[in-house]
Design brief:
By secondary structure, this protein is of the alpha/beta class. The chain is built from 13 helices and 19 strands. The protein is globular and about 70 Å long.
Length: 373
Amino acid sequence: MNITILVDRKENESRVAATPDIIKKLIMLKPSAILIESGLGKTIYTDSDFEKAGAKIADKETCLKQANMVLTVHPLDSDDLRKLSPNTITLSYMDPFMNKETVEAYAKAKVTSLCIELVPRTTLAQKMDALSSQASLAGYVAVLMAANESSSILPMMMTPAGTIRPSKVFIIGAGVAGLQAIATAKRLGARVEAFDTRPVVEEQVQSLGAKFVKVDLGDTGQTKDGYAKKLTDEQLTKQKEVMAKHCSQADIVITTAQLFGRKAPIIVTKEMVQSMKPGSVIVDLAIDTGGNVEGAELGKTVIINGVSIIGTGNFPGQVSKNASEMYASNLYYFIEHFWNKESNTLKLDKNDDILKGALLTENGQIVNERIKG
């Protein structure tokens, strides 16, 4: 089995699906060959780095022609799919709920596609959880970007001219990204408050030294995958009233609320933005799935009434070296789990719950029940 790693064509994507260290691990599995498209990760690695690790460097056409398994960050385009042999296995992000045309293109090309973000959140699959690994970095990056954009410093500072009060940071959503944002903001000396619709995360927030903002929303909770459940209109109204108060007092607001497989909910309205002090900053970590903040724009920082709204998108890509290391490791553990040591190939066990979650297309059909529905 030839394992191929391709350069992603998506604009402003600097992450890669394999690193030299992961190549060394993949070689231990004894595939027929590992082919790297020339120029992979050129901002963080060289072709020589991959060659020293044991991979072969080739052009794109050769990589596609000889591939039995393809690793990327984002899905392949239609042109590349047509150049793959039938039953080639791909492993990447797919965004299948929002990107059904791409899923259909994979089925049409008779490619066996595996979707890394559909790996179930179980103890066994924890090492394969790319969503969590990338979200953790996104939370870290969000605080640094906000600190750089803010007109105020984060820590308290004693000076001969007087004392500078610490910035107040308000984080909406205490999942993986939110908790990392809390930890980072606290390390930088800010006063941190956090809100989440799931009361179960209160202890985690407090353990990081932040204040948990309580709102009585009645029956809330989380899904089996650990995501917040969708709120009713009445619950959303009540939540926004509390959000408005805390946003108006904050120097930095970071929103992380996402609904798996659906558009992100609007949490910070234009009225709430207008209530904030000039010089304050909002970072919308959900901008890639529609955004939590009215007025936020993907790929831009916009200023409304003196408030900067950062909607850069692909926040893990801002620290592409570490993001690549974590993502490549997630893919490696997925491959290792299904690797057959006798045949030195990937053996996809249809009875395996991880495969049931991740398998999207096979033999020209969309086979994932969640996506077919």
